[in-house]
Amino acid sequence: MALWTPEFLQTQKYSAARARLMMAQAGIIQEGIFDLGDFAVTQRGAGANMSVDIAAGSAWIKGDDTARQGHYHVVNDATVNVAIPAAHATLPRLDQVVLRIYDSTVIGGGKDGVFIEVVSGTATVGATLANRTGAAALPSSAIKLADVIVAAADASITNAEIGNLRRPRAGQTGYPAAVSPLSVTGAPAAYAMGRPAGFVPAVSAIRSGSQSVAGSTQVSVLLNAEEYDLLEMHDNAVNPERLTAKVPGIYAISAHTGWAVNSAGASRTMTIRDLNGNVIQFSGHAPVAGWGHNYAHDHSLDWYMGYGDFVDLRVFQDIGGPLNLEEGRFAARWIGP
To answer: What is the pLDDT of residue 12?
Structure first.
């Protein structure tokens, strides 16, 4: 028949698939994890070996073995350890840790439930987390939790070899900085990052305390604190002058700096640059004796960034010696694809 019986007529009975489909199409649920840290993949807590730990958490998985299969609710209430297949003797291999649904009503067989699996790629020369060379296709009715690069003759998996989709700076390597999760997973931005509907990536990094700025040179604003950072777009220690996009799109970017009181006239500037060092916003003041804390600069602009692109904030002054920067704020908010 072309038309299904509508939910919920008192005289009818309905399958589990109908309930799953209804919730998905009503926008009640989306595929992905519930919260940052859910199902996070890390090296074995009891000592690194050829396995990884999967954190507790909750998720929804879209069934795509057949049309109109709906979404499945998944809960993990304790850390699970999963073995990684033995390394190739001479070549690296890109494996994927996935959360997968088996529903015998849909695909047949006698297997039902949710399982954490490792989908091994093909050992390939030059495979890395960044290029994902040799990676296998993602199975049906599954979400990816992490990529794992298994080095040649590897005897243990460490955090530096794990790239979590929703934690781009996992370990020292993290998720590929040159590849968008959208192109990898084929999912909308909020899904790829394991975030709920309506989630908007945003960050506001600030300078806490004075920063001495040397004279007559461009200096990075060392933003050492955050008012908020919803998607690890800023690091207080590594390149603290940068805001890095983790979802491609147009960002509303704003910046503010304010200088200490100084009686000497001086030129003072603030510059926003892109990842190639190109100036995309600039403002400056000619020497004005006595201008002090109110000697400030403010910028705002819309700017497109791909995954891994960044903007940075710099200042300049030429009073003839060091001068304190008393205020610094750098913010970005995703406003569209």
So the answer is: 66
